[in-house]
Amino acid sequence: MITTRAPGKLYIAGEYAVVEPGHPAILVAVDRHITVTLTESDGVGCIASSGRRTVTWHREADGTMVMKRHSYVTRAIEVVDRLRAERGIPPLTFDLTIDSELEEGGRKLGLGSSAAVVVAVIEAVTELYGLGLSPIDRIKLAILATVARSPRASGGDIAASTLGGWILYRSPDRAVLARERTVTAAMESAGWQGFDVRALPAPTLDLMVGWTGTPASTQSLVDAVEQAGPADFDAFLADSDRIVHSLAGALESGDHAGVQSAVREARQNLARLQESTGIAIETDRLAALCDIAVAHGAAAKPSGAGGGDCGIALGTFDRGLLSEWESAGIVPLDLHVQEGAA
Ligand code: MEV
Q: Where does the GHMP kinase C-terminal domain start and stop, copy by copy (predicted)?
């Protein structure tokens, strides 16, 4: 039996910009996890997710897997299976059970559950086959699996979920990766040129997280921003890059005022993107979440694609702030930073 765990994540800065290859974002992993348990089985495999969804699959005589292509889980298994075949390792059949702490009452919290599932499944199946991959290679495999389903996904959540802690991330050119014929070639592709992941020091500021209770679809929001094709998108990208750099610098030098000011600027930059696209990134409830936090001296912004899900506040832990969030219908989430392995 193999058990793996992958944490959820929050975006601190660089959302939407990071979708464009080479543009940076800063994320943090949080201590709520997806847990995957893998056991070998004979003939027919089974994937059971949080006791709700079950997919069965089998292998043909030539070792090919036959399974429903409906989820990130099957994409994750498939990409590892292709690498296994390319390395001449005999196929196995197995059962997976997936348990999630990244939802409440069956509703996703918006903490990157799809990425965490992919990361935990890839870690379990690569371990089963003894592929001996480094964390960076597992990030690469997880990105290949994810973009097979969501071609625009940046992979920032995958990197945070794999490494833990605070990270700076730049996405690869996924269109170039998609053109490679084998997984082995895709892992070595020129598409990784702009890709980068590095650990950042955590600030001593407290991270407070509020859940709006409204699930949002990242893919629909990213597609809608692309379709809106804002005229000032280059200015948005340039501002996002500048903000991410100043946030990274402030984290590295322990400048807490600088961290808070970069977070405030990141919120304003997302608001400009909202204005030029007409897409509700900071919904009314996210605006309330941020405004309450600001009134308590914290810096706050939506996390990730917005449209619902979660918002973050960085400041000094403040029970009054959390109870005002509750009065405004925002659920404070009891979570902390998941320390990185490094
Ligand atoms: C969503 O959590 C963050 C976005 O930048 C999309 C992505 O990075 O794939 C909006």
A: 248-315
